Amino acid sequence: MLQVLEGVATQCVAKQDKGATGNVWSIFLAPNQIINATRKLYEAEYSLEDVLALDIEEGFLVIYHFNRWNIEERVTLRVLLPRDNAVVPSIASIFQGAEWHERETRDFHGIIFKDNPNLVPLLMSAEDVDVHPLIKADKVRKSIKELLTLGEIVSCSKGIEELFAEAEAEEASDA
């Protein structure tokens, strides 16, 4: 996997327990790296499974799942966006099927997928364009560390590591 994404500036790369998470790799990226990463996955014959988002305390976490037909190596790319600037480049120019997923994610969360060729409402009516039903109230949002585990860290920036540090310290004290 690391060879496939050579040249992509990653924020965190972790090997995961496939039985527990469904993923083999979890990779955090800055928004400006998503095009480069997805292009490399496309060239390595990965297929896009889906694009979705989570509304969490830290902002919006956009999640991209990829897999290959001939090798079971599910990869999850994760992009954390600030709530006040929820914009990420569209990957529809690389994976045409992404257009639909990005439109659905925009409908439900209000995330803008820059350069999506058809970012019109998919499931919401035109009158509901500014209504995003999966945006949570502050009091019910969970933190990223409550929802995800990093797994076996291969490399990680201090910023991403800090998001998970408290949860890992709690796990160590429980052992």
Explain how this protein is built:
The chain is an alpha/beta fold and about 180 residues long. It has one domain: NADH:ubiquinone oxidoreductase Nqo5 subunit (Beta Polymerase, domain 2, 2-Layer Sandwich). The protein is built from five helices and eight strands; from the N terminus they run E-H-E-H-E-E-E-E-H-E-H-E-H. The strands form two sheets. It has a six-stranded mixed beta sheet with strand order 3-4-5-2-1-8, with helices on both faces. It has a two-stranded parallel ribbon with strand order 6-7. The mean pLDDT is about 90.
What's this model, at a glance?
By secondary structure, this protein is an alpha/beta fold. The chain is built from five helices and eight strands; from the N terminus they run βαβαββββαβαβα. The protein has one domain: 2-Layer Sandwich (Beta Polymerase, domain 2), CATH 3.30.460.80.
